[in-house]
Amino acid sequence: MPAIYSPDTVGFLIVDVARLLRAEFDRRTGGAGLGLTPAEARTLSHVARTGPVRQSVLAERMGVEAMTLSACLDRLEGHGLVQRAPDPSDRRAKLVDITEAAGPALDSIFAVSAEMRTDMTAGIDGAKVEEFRLMLMTIRANLVAMRPDCGKGSAAQ
């Protein structure tokens, strides 16, 4: 008899919820009349949250290939919503940032996100949602600290 593995472990649940969350975000932003694809809306949202950021770092944070991100940034730059500039600490690298023109699109994206958060936490006490958010922040910090480039943990673990 094959072993039965629970789909309700913390790691599996986080990945599954993230997958469902992304699909719902894409569905909602795709139908919101933003004039942006869901990928462009996700990218613009990430750039707005991270401030001036290297393209390579942005790609890693978003979990996409650098070439995929580059094409998306090309389109956003064409819309006048982001700008790329040489990184003063490394001229080979580009820093990406939002433009002032991105404000209305970001307002719409964040309104969609806020409505989605309300819908996905329906029936859960606000204090519990905040406690869960804080727990996720701790898990994220623990995972970042485990990265080999942080000097803790190892790639073999």
The number of distinct helices, counting runs of at least 4 residues, comes to: 6
**Main β-sheet, in a few words?**
3 strands, antiparallel
Distance between the termini: 29 Å
Strand order in the largest sheet: 1-3-2
User: Proportion of β residues?
Assistant: 5-15%
Number of strands: 3
Which CATH class of the largest domain applies here?
Answer: Mainly Alpha
CATH topology of the largest domain: Arc Repressor Mutant, subunit A
Order of helices and strands: HHEHHEEHH
Number of domains: 2
Summarize it.
The chain has 157 residues and is mostly helical. It contains six helices and three strands; from the N terminus they run H-H-E-H-H-E-E-H-H. Helices cover 60% and strands 11% of the residues.
